[in-house]
Amino acid sequence: MSDERESFTYEEFGEASRLLAQQIADDGYETDIVIAIARGGMLLAGSLSYALGVKSCGALNVEFYTGVGTRLPEPIILPPMLDQVSLNGKRVLLVDDVSDSGRTLALVIQLLEASGAEVRSVVLYTKPHTVQEATYTWRRTDRWINFPWSVQPPVVAAV
Questions:
Q1: Backbone angles phi, psi at 43, to 5 degrees
Q2: 10 Å Cβ neighbour count for 133?
Q3: In this predicted model, what pLDDT tens digit does every residue of 124-154 receive, in sequence order?
Q4: Which pTM was predicted?
Q5: Disulfide: which of 6, 49, 62, 129 matches 34 by Cβ 3.0-4.6 Å?
Q6: Domain extent at residue 133
Q7: Is residue 65 part of a domain?
């Protein structure tokens, strides 16, 4: 991974999410449900669900990265879990911010497909060394991405 960082703005987010929605629509994919990998995929999943006119949405919590360039040995799915039985036979659009190593995306695709879902995936960014290419991607980079929603530290109560 390069030491340089790529800055991503809210304006770019609006453009990227609309372009990705258009790619999905042009591809003829009509999803039944949009599922975000939380937390990174939640904003894009919401934007895509509106742009594609899909009201059925969900999220799956996965922990892998613990900081810039630091991660757990394996991605871990955290509660609450999705109702996997209800996904059988559904067309799922799985959404995340980045396919970096690709291990989180691969894990969740495997879980959803084991539930009987047809899965297509979409990410804002794909890294060159990913083990899981998303079906749709906006941009490729080898840099760490500074997203506007996560670049600043959490808000704490004023003393």
A1: -65, -45
A2: 14
A3: 999 999 999 999 999 999 999 999 999 999 9
A4: 0.89
A5: 49
A6: 5-146
A7: yes
